[in-house]
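Quick one:
INPUT:
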């Protein structure tokens, strides 16, 4: 009962204090709004600040008038307990946000500029500098970009920037936040506490991005991140000291609000692109700590010292508190690159990684994958970093550890080596990966200390040969035993190098099985050697190629104990051999398995079964024929079939030496797909061109296929109604309806008479006839000649013409998607860099498409985007002559494809885009001819200039002929054209 009364009294006091605080804040705000001079505002703020903070009123009293000075000095000072109660209520309720808005908006706009400096410090800034820092940050940061009536209030923003610089940097506000979050408020649950931490961390790290241009230098990203990082590290040190003081051994493993705030702040700094600034403060401190532990003189081993010495473990706790996987990877990557530029040895590098990552490496699979997958297969670090990564993540022991300890991790070593070799040995990796990545992975494979001497020798040999390819004058020797030698890469040798023995701590010899990784004893090894010897002797007896051998006898010999004296067994064996080797027909054994493909959907299914090499080969055999037949299903399976044909691996499904034949079938099938179903095939094939899931050889194949398809479409024949060479009806000289035939004809011809149509009862046209005089010596075979439309069921040969080009309608579908994204760098796609071969192929394909569209309207439309692409500096001034030659070829194709009449029309209409583009071709080709060191580029540039001159000549003639037409029709032209002063920039 007494406890309940005490609680009621406490709640009553808190409610009374809350009411008093709110009433006081309301009175102060009202006084500020009614104030006539600045001293009234100062006195009003002082009356509230005195109840919240311990103030020296005389420090600023001399800067105000006497009538207000006496009021300030004579104000009643509350007790410390009451002041603490007021402080808690003021900052934990709505009082502070309300008062802060008045301070930051009303006072800052109207009065702050008139405040004496001492008064600004003691009765204005004090509300922010000595308040609850988390509430202050949440209030101040939004005012960095305060708009009023659609306008940025610069005075409000500059005041908020000043207060944040004082609060967070000069007054160590970030350190105060770390201390404040170590205690969870009673009226907050864990989820609310975590949300508040995340929100404040986001606001604190966003200050440089939200600050205005030209704001204080302290809020610039460089200085700001550096200052808050120092405070965050200091907060982590205080956290660990507090934990260590609470228990003699460092047993506390939970993460409180302080360390969670520090980890969240680290993550957000990295997300905002300042990981290098963060690590510039972290690395010197952690390197100093590691070197202090590695100094000789300690009674403990190095491993024991790192695990037990206080003041080091907060690093791993910070990394554990970072929940953003991107931030962890970014920090790790930047850390390795920065350590590589410093004088860090292998032992120091290992322990730095251990301090930061050993806990999360053991607990989080994503971190283990980051080190063993991304950092070994996807990235390319300096070699010193590679050694640290292997030592920490694969060997999992310091570099100075004895061999006995390292051998305990041989299973992990073998697994990692097999995984690296699986990637390193793929043809796609050699074709598509950059040279730096290949060298990096080669070094990783070579540096893993495999228990097998053969594997080590193979890795040494590979690294040595690869290094000579890159830099012949600087061969790479991975160890002292590395030498040039011939290695049996097919594993057919029977020497003892195939198995390697390593001594472990008990002194027994063990043999590492390369397939299972288990150890075999010496006795087992002896038994295995005996079997190998018997097998070798057995193989030596099979030398006569004409000898008839029963396979069953081989099995019996292998299973027997060497008893060969049983004559009955020999006779039975011989009889069995003769009967078992009778010839029989094998041609029909697999007829049910080799069914012919009759539908394209079956071809798609067979090509997707990569494990059925025979099915893939048969599908490639019939794919082109089925596509050329143009079945109804073609448009429905076009996308899947194109993707499958591009992604199928011909080398995996064909015999050695027949890869080129399968590759040719695949490409012919793709060409047939594009020719017979252009719109359904071009969309998926253009997407695959920029897909990260294809390699360089597949991209080149795609471009070759598109080029061949464009040429085939350009040479395809199509029939169409022949256009007459002259006008059929002349109406200009006669005043009669246009549909009547002309009366022009030989003398003596009668007039035209209308007759009824006889070809079709539904004919909507009229026919006419007239009598013609008989020519001398001509037999009269009819009385009239008819003029009318031809019968629909009779088409004479001279009325049909054959077009030799089906490509122009599909030119845009070929070119436009292929031109999008060539300058973007993605994972596995870098056309402007290492994939310049693909870029050259792409430009050549585009030039071929322009040539196939020559003299068609599509060429005029597509020339402009292609010229924009070619004129970009990254392409026209590419370092590789192969690309420059492709650009010259494409530019020449544009000159051949454009109709001079179109260029002349564009000039007359005032459209200068095509003129500027062709002028660029001329000037660029001229510069290539003058300065390019490649002979072929020079010759192609001269040919391009010749084509340009021909284009300029033809365009000039078209302009001259257009002048007479313009004058005849009376079309008004701009003054420069009418005066004949147009300049052809060709």
């Amino acid at each position: 009962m007494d406890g309940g009364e005490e609680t009621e009294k406490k709640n009553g006091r808190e409610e009374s204090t809350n009411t008093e605080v709110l009433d006081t804040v309301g009175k102060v705000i009202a006084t500020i709004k009614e104030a006539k001079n600045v001293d009234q505002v100062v006195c009003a703020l002082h009356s509230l600040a005195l109840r919240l903070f311990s103030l020296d009123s005389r420090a600023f009293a001399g800067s105000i008038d006497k009538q207000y000075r006496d009021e300030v000095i004579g104000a009643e000072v509350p007790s410390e307990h009451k002041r603490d109660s007021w402080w808690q209520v003021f900052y934990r309720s709505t009082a502070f946000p309300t008062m802060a808005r008045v301070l930051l908006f009303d006072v800052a706009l109207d009065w702050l500029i008139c405040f004496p400096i001492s008064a600004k410090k003691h009765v204005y800034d004090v509300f922010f500098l000595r308040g609850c820092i988390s509430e202050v940050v949440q209030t101040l940061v939004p005012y960095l970009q305060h708009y009023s009536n659609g306008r940025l209030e610069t005075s409000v923003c500059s005041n908020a920037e000043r207060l944040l610089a004082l609060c967070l940097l000069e007054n160590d506000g970030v350190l105060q936040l770390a201390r404040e979050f170590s205690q969870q408020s009673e009226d907050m649950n864990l989820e609310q506490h975590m949300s508040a931490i995340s929100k404040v961390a986001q606001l604190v790290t966003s200050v440089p991005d939200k600050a205005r241009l030209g704001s204080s230098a302290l809020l610039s990203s460089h200085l700001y991140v550096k200052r808050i990082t120092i405070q965050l590290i200091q907060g982590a040190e205080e956290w660990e000291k507090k934990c260590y003081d609470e228990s003699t051994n460092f047993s506390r493993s939970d993460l409180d609000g302080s360390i969670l705030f520090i980890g969240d702040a680290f993550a957000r700094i990295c997300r905002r692109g300042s990981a290098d600034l963060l690590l510039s403060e972290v690395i010197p401190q952690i390197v100093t700590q590691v070197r202090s532990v590695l100094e000789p003189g300690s009674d403990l081993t190095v491993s024991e010292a790192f695990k037990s010495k206080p003041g080091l473990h907060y690093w791993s706790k910070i990394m554990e508190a970072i929940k953003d996987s991107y931030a962890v990877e970014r920090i790790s990557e930047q850390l390795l690159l920065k350590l590589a530029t410093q004088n860090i040895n292998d032992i120091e590098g290992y322990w730095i990684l251990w301090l930061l990552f050993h806990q999360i490496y053991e607990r989080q699979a994503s971190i283990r994958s980051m080190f063993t997958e991304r950092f070994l297969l996807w990235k390319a670090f300096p070699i010193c970093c590679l050694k640290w990564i292997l030592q920490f993540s694969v060997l999992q022991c310091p570099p100075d550890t004895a061999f006995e300890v390292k051998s305990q991790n041989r299973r992990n070593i073998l697994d990692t080596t097999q995984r690296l070799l699986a990637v390193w040995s793929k043809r796609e990796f050699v074709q598509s990966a950059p040279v730096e990545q290949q060298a990096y992975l080669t070094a990783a494979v070579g540096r893993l200390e495999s228990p097998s001497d053969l594997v080590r020798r193979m890795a040494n040999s590979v690294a040595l040969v690869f290094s000579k390819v890159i830099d012949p004058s600087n061969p790479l020797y991975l160890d002292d035993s590395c030498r040039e030698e011939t290695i049996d890469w097919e594993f057919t040798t029977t020497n003892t190098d195939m198995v390697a023995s390593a001594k472990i701590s008990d002194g027994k010899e063990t043999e590492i099985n390369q397939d299972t990784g288990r150890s075999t004893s010496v006795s087992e090894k002896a038994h295995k050697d005996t079997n190998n010897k018997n097998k070798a002797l057995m193989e030596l007896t099979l030398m006569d190629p004409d000898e008839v051998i029963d396979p069953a006898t081989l099995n019996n010999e292998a299973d027997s104990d060497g008893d060969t004296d049983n004559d009955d067994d020999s006779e039975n064996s011989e009889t069995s051999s003769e009967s078992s080797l009778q010839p029989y027909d094998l041609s029909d054994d697999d007829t049910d398995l080799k069914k012919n493909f009759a539908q394209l959907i079956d071809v798609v299914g067979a090509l997707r079964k990569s494990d059925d090499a025979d099915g893939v080969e048969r599908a490639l055999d019939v794919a082109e024929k089925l596509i050329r037949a143009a079945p109804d299903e073609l448009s429905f399976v076009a996308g899947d079939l194109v993707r499958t044909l591009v992604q199928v691996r011909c080398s995996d499904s064909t015999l050695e030496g027949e890869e080129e034949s399968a590759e040719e079938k695949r490409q012919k099938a793709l060409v047939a797909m594009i020719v017979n179903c252009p719109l359904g095939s071009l969309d998926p094939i253009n997407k695959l061109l920029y897909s990260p899931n294809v390699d360089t050889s597949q991209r080149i194949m795609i471009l070759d296929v598109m080029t061949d398809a464009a040429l085939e479409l350009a040479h395809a024949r199509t029939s169409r109604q022949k256009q007459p060479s002259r006008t059929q009806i002349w109406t200009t000289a006669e005043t009669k309806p246009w549909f009547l035939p002309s009366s022009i004809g030989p003398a003596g011809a009668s007039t035209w008479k209308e007759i009824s149509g006889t070809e079709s009862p539904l004919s909507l046209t009229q026919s006419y006839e007239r009598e013609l005089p008989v020519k001398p010596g001509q037999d009269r075979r009819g009385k009239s000649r008819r003029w009318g439309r031809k019968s629909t069921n009779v088409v004479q040969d001279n009325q049909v013409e054959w077009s030799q080009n089906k490509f122009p309608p599909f030119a845009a579908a070929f070119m436009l998607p292929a031109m999008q994204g060539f300058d973007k760098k993605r994972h596995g796609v870098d056309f402007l860099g290492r994939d310049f071969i693909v870029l050259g192929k792409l430009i050549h394909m585009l030039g071929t498409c322009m040539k196939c569209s020559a003299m068609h309207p599509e060429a005029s439309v597509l020339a402009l985007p292609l010229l924009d692409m070619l004129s970009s500096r990254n392409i026209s001034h590419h370092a590789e002559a192969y690309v420059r030659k492709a650009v010259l070829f494409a530019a020449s194709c544009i000159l051949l494809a454009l109709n001079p009449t179109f260029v002349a029309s564009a000039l007359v209409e005032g459209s200068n885009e095509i003129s500027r583009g062709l002028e660029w071709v001329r000037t660029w080709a001229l510069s290539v001819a003058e300065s390019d060191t490649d002979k072929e580029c020079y010759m192609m540039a001269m040919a391009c200039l010749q084509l340009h001159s021909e284009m300029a000549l033809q365009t000039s003639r078209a302009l001259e002929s257009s002048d007479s037409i313009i004058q005849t029709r009376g079309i008004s032209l701009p003054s420069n054209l009418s005066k004949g002063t147009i300049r052809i920039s060709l």
